[in-house]
TrEMBL record, chain A:
The entry's keywords: Amino-acid transport, Signal, Transport
Protein name, as recorded: Leucine-binding protein domain-containing protein
Ranges for domain Leucine-binding protein: 24-363
Alphabetical list of CDD domains matching this protein: PBP1_SBP-like (cd06327)
Keyword Electron transport listed: no
Entry keyword Signal: yes
Family statement drawn from the similarity comment of this UniProt entry: Belongs to the leucine-binding protein family.
Pfam families assigned: Peripla_BP_6
Cited SUPFAM superfamilies: Periplasmic binding protein-like I
Organism: Methylobacterium isbiliense
TrEMBL record, chain B:
InterPro entries: ABC_transp_permease, BCAA_transport_permease
Lineage: Bacteria, Pseudomonadati, Pseudomonadota, Alphaproteobacteria, Hyphomicrobiales
Record organism: Methylobacterium isbiliense
Keyword Cell cycle assigned: no
Key word Transport present: yes
Listed name of the protein: High-affinity branched-chain amino acid transport system permease protein LivH
Regions crossing the membrane: 12-35, 68-87, 99-118, 149-168, 189-218, 230-259, 266-285
Membrane topology summary: Multi-pass membrane protein
PANTHER family given in the database record: ABC TRANSPORTER ATP-BINDING PROTEIN (PTHR11795:SF442), BRANCHED-CHAIN AMINO ACID TRANSPORT SYSTEM PERMEASE PROTEIN LIVH (PTHR11795)
CDD domains cross-referenced by the UniProt entry: TM_PBP1_LivH_like
Keywords carried by this UniProt record: Amino-acid transport, Cell membrane, Membrane, Transmembrane, Transmembrane helix, Transport
Compartments where located: Cell membrane
Family indicated by similarity: Belongs to the binding-protein-dependent transport system permease family. LivHM subfamily.
Length: 411, 295
């Protein structure tokens, strides 16, 4: 009995000693862990967040970082209620990843209400840094405008000037169709038809048949993850590409191509901000990642979680506290970003993270030298060309600020 | 081009044909559910997971043992059916005397566990399963390109559904089954082994689900979530057709596939909900379903 008491006292002292002087930081990784986006985000994003905490050497810098995770099942109401519970009751300071634009928009508003932080990696809608921008959100990895500029622009340049969209019927599908249409019409092409497919869709053959009958040169897949995989596979079986129509996947991750294999996906043109085989730094990271995650290479969304957590922790360490979300995000915007996966970059006042995007083409089976050797690089799109100029997004944070200053400048 | 309600006739026929293919899966799956419910009084929520297992067993046979599609069409239903038999003996048999709700909870829980295990092992991106070489290629019909495989799906499911219906309605075994559904105690008194009949019926219903899974593998790709996606629709089909009605579930399955196909032409946004709207309407007018007997 006395020995037990002694042990308890020692333990209490030991833990108290380690906590003393450390800033607690609680990170929540909120994404799809079971549905169509589980392979592009899911547990891999948690692994990436953990690696970022290790690489930052948080404990040495006075931060005591804890990571929690949850499955939002691609449902906006569920995502928002998990976010509220995390912020209000479980002491979470920042939420990361959040794929599925509809869920991201919901969580984005909760983070603003509670003055916490959202660093979004997996969602696409450019509205996060446009009309609905918030001082509590950083949109890290990609957005629908960058995807449209990359893939849409490249397809029109190759002669694909008539388009038919198969669009996932929710916020992301709508945003990517809207932004791609702007690119197509801006470059002299036109959209001959579009169909809204239920999300998620296990069968899109009906819509592919409609796309074939439209006679469009390009079938734009305004969907992602499992939905895109299904569409590409079914298109191959329906003989779409043999018929001379090209597929354009507007949001494709390397995990999708790995599942499809280059045999089915060869020649597909796509835009991504990250690929494991870009340079020595991405290869080294991806090898480490694969060792802890069943040999899988990281997707762009997972890479974005790693880089986002790293930069977030820098800002928190500089500030000495994670309490005030607005101040942490302001700090993140002041510090230049620099990480092994996306290189040097910046975060704009509207919350948009700026880095290069890449136009890739899926290799032929004869060119691919391993199961993860998937892409060849067609072009590097510099960050300032890839994303929407800040003035065009309609972000009130940016617009109002400059107007006020102008007014005050008047005598 | 001839137009019907502002839609080219070609597009309409194309979509109707695709709807018929989806209807084939609805028909086989709801048939299995109807048989199990009719005799065992168990609402088998594991049906979707068992359908998924059928597809996975076919994939495993091909990738681990080099056994092709045609053998898988036989072996996968046998293997998954055996799994069903074990499940019935070990777990479901203990619930016959309890309320429906317990069977529902048990089978639903098992479905979640099975799907979770497969998801952990294989991810959600899906595994490719090639169309067997005998059925690759397709027919260039005047109104659409019909892959041979999809034609085969319709034929195979029609044959299986009709054969099942004939066995149940026209054979002695079927007569036992129907009698045991009506009054199990009396049938047992005549010396029929009712518990064995129940076990085999469950095994057969599960095997039907696995058969549909093998048929689906080349169409939808093999994915741990494939059963969860389809099973809700199939339950709606069973409710519309009338719980436990064999012929009802076959006819309703194909018809609703067609209606869903039509919706994809005229208002695609509603294609994932149209079946549930019909379910609500049918329940308002005929609470026992279109082919169900009122209790």
């Amino acid at each position: 009995m006395r020995a037990q008491l002694l042990l308890a006292a020692v333990l209490a002292l030991a833990t108290a000693g380690s906590v003393q002087g450390q800033t607690p930081v609680r990170i929540g990784v909120l994404n799809d862990r079971s549905g169509v986006y589980a392979d592009i985000s899911g547990e891999g994003s948690v692994v990436a967040a953990r690696m970022a905490v290790e690489d930052f050497k948080a404990a040495e810098k006075g931060l005591k970082v804890e990571i929690v995770s949850a499955d939002h099942q691609n449902k906006p109401d569920l995502g928002a209620s998990i976010a509220r519970q995390w912020f209000d009751r479980e002491g979470v300071d920042a939420i990361f990843d959040v794929p599925t634009s509809s869920v991201a928009l919901a969580v984005h508003h909760v983070a603003r209400e509670r003055n916490k932080v959202l660093v979004d990696s997996g969602a696409g809608t450019a509205d996060l840094t446009g009309t609905q921008c918030s001082p509590n959100t950083v949109h890290w990895t990609f957005d629908t405008v960058a995807l449209a500029n990359g893939t849409g622009g490249a397809m029109v340049k190759r002669g694909g000037d008539t388009w038919f969209f198969i669009t996932a019927d929710y916020a992301f599908g709508e945003a990517v169709q809207r932004d791609t249409t702007a690119v197509i019409t801006g470059r002299g092409g036109r959209v001959v038809g579009a169909v809204k497919a239920p999300f998620p869709a296990s069968d899109v053959s009906a819509f592919l048949t409609a796309a074939r009958q439209s006679g469009a040169k390009v079938i734009g897949l305004a969907n992602a993850g499992g939905d895109t995989i299904t569409a590409v596979r079914q298109a191959a079986k329906l003989g779409i590409t043999e018929g001379g129509q090209a597929l354009a996947g507007l949001l494709i991750f390397s995990s999708d191509i790995h599942a499809l294999t280059p045999r089915v996906a060869q020649g597909l043109v796509l835009t991504e901000p990250f690929y494991w085989d870009l340079n020595d730094a991405t290869r080294a990271f991806s090898d480490r990642f694969a060792k802890t995650f069943n040999g899988k290479k990281p997707t762009a969304a997972q890479a974005g979680v790693y880089a986002g957590v790293l930069h977030y922790l820098k800002a928190v360490a500089a500030l000495g506290s994670a309490r005030d979300g607005g101040r942490v995000v302001a700090g993140m915007k002041e510090l230049p970003t620099d990480d092994p996966l996306f290189g040097k970059g910046t975060i704009r006042p509207d919350g948009r993270k700026i880095h290069d995007m890449y136009l890739f083409e899926v290799k032929r089976p004869s060119e691919s030298r391993g199961e993860w050797d998937l892409y060849k690089t067609l072009a590097t799109i510099p960050g300032d060309e890839a994303f929407r100029p800040m003035g065009e997004g309609g972000c009130p944070l940016v617009g109002r600020g400059s107007v006020v200053r102008l007014d005050r400048a008047q005598p | 081009m001839t137009m019907i309600f502002g839609v080219p006739m070609q597009a309409l026929f194309g979509q109707l044909l695709l709807g018929l293919i989806n209807g084939s899966f609805y028909a086989i799956l709801s048939l299995g559910l109807a048989i199990i419910f009719g005799l065992l009084n168990i609402i088998n929520f594991t049906h979707g997971a068992q359908y998924m297992m059928g597809a996975f067993v076919a994939w495993m046979l091909l990738n681990y043992a080099g056994i092709g599609y045609w053998w898988a069409l036989l072996l996968a239903p046998l293997a998954v059916g055996l799994f069903g038999v074990i499940m019935e003996r070990l777990l479901i048999a203990r619930l016959y005397k309890l309320d429906h709700l317990y069977g529902l909870l048990l089978t639903f829980g098992l479905a979640l566990i099975i799907q979770g295990l497969f998801r952990n092992e294989y991810g959600v991106s899906g595994l490719p399963y090639a169309i067997p070489s005998e059925l690759s290629g397709g027919q260039r019909l005047p109104f659409m390109f019909l892959p041979n495989y999809r034609g085969w799906v319709v034929v195979a499911s029609l044959v299986v559904c009709l054969a099942t219906w004939l066995v149940i309605e026209k054979t002695k075994l079927g007569a036992y089954l129907r009698a045991a559904t009506e009054n199990p105690t009396l049938v047992q008194a005549f010396g029929v082994n009712v518990p064995l009949l129940l076990t085999l019926t469950y095994g057969f219903g599960v095997a039907l689900a696995a058969f549909a899974g093998v048929l689906a593998a080349p169409v939808y790709s093999v994915n741990p979530n494939m059963g969860a996606d389809i099973i809700i629709v199939v339950f709606a089909v069973v409710v519309i057709g009338g719980m436990g009605s064999i012929l009802g579930s076959i006819i309703t399955g194909f018809t609703l596939g067609l209606i869903e196909g039509l919706t994809k032409v005229f208002y695609p946004e509603a294609s994932s909900t149209v079946i549930f709207v019909i379910m609500v309407l049918v329940l308002l007018v005929k609470p026992a379903g279109l082919f169900g007997r009122t209790a």
